[in-house]
Amino acid sequence: MIQKIAQPLLFSSMSRPKTDGKPVWDVIIGLHTYPTVLAAHELKLFSLLAGKELTLENICESLNLTNRSASAVLSICTSLGLIEFKNNYYSLTTVAREYLLETSPTSFCGYFDLMIANAASFSYEGIKKAILSDKTQVYNGEDIFEVHEQKDEIARSFTRAMHSASISAALAWPETINLSGYRQMLDIAGGSGAHSIGATSKYPDLKATVLDLAPICEVAQEFVMQQGLQSRIGTQVGNMWKDSFPEADLHFYSLIYHDWTPDQCRFLTKKSFDSLKPGGRLIIHEWLFNDERTQPLSTAAYNLIMLLWCAGGQQYSGLELSTMLAEAGFVDIQVLPTFGYWSIVTGQKPK
């Protein structure tokens, strides 16, 4: 039997692609872009430029870098809008001054440090392993919340890191909804108390209680004292799964629902509904998917982070969370964009 030999594809039969392939190139670009910013943070590039303008030569000398490597880092940072270049001098942009300096009240440095300490989790191997196993990749695969219950210093470090990622949004969302009729906010698994600080700063008649584990409450007290709000924000050691909720007319969860499965989220929603008095309000503060869970990329990326960090954790859509609230009995449910990638889902217990 004579086999036919496949003929090579002739160039003349090829046609120009209908797309330019940018989304595919962006994958490659992103692999190299964002670790560079973490490296710039660890090198103290942003703090070096705090309040001053420096030349490339100044930066190379201060950081002990060659011109080529320093220029590569600076090009990434200028392209991202973190550093600006003018008249041969580099300086920080407003966003860098607000988020990339340790001295800023909205500093992201703690969260960057957390990412660097767990860099193996979001490596190619770490992400592939999480996808194939559906298991967390941080803390050597141990459950994050069990680790925080057992190891106080790790819990404290994590809480400080999350404060840096939360405080800017915490100062913004209270402007989106009128809380003037509420008197006592329960910040459930409230971590550093960032959101209690934001809410009470906006509403002088509002008091708040941060409910969390003992070492985390200690960190919250530190941040509350820094703001001089200790007379209005208290802490209560407790477990949101096991302990009764203290009396409050406003329940608040930020980045809590995304840690848990839908059934566990429904449990928390019903527990809040049963605990609140008529007229009480529930607010859930998250990054939301669209109804089809296909967009935006920011939430899809955060959803992948939850795969790496929390067993069963995932991002939800506004529709999914609204449905949970409605099933529990809440009414007047709203989904409101607040700040950056953040939104709130809120409902009221019938009066």
Residues in helix, %: 40-55%
In CATH terms, the superfamily of the largest domain is: Vaccinia Virus protein VP39
Tell me about the biggest sheet? 8 strands, mixed
CATH architecture of the largest domain: 3-Layer(aba) Sandwich
β-sheet strand percentage:
15-25%
The termini sit apart by 85 Å
Radius of gyration: 24 Å
User: What sort of overall outline do the alpha carbons produce when their principal axes are compared?
Assistant: globular
Parts with pLDDT < 50 across at least 5 consecutive residues: none
Helical/strand content category: alpha/beta
Count of structural domains: 2
Rounded mean pLDDT is 95
Please report the first level of CATH classification, the CATH class of the largest domain.
Answer: Alpha Beta
Number of strands: 10
What can you tell me about this protein's structure?
The protein has about 350 residues and is of the alpha/beta class. Helix content is about 45%, strand content about 15%. The chain has two domains: about 80 residues, Orthogonal Bundle (Arc Repressor Mutant, subunit A), CATH 1.10.10.10; about 230 residues, 3-Layer(aba) Sandwich (Rossmann fold), CATH 3.40.50. Strands 3, 4, 5, 6, 7, 8, 9 and 10 form an eight-stranded mixed β-sheet that branches. Strand 9 and strand 10 form a beta hairpin. Helix 6 crosses helix 9 and helix 9 crosses helix 11. The protein starts with about 20 loop residues before the first helix and ends with a strand.
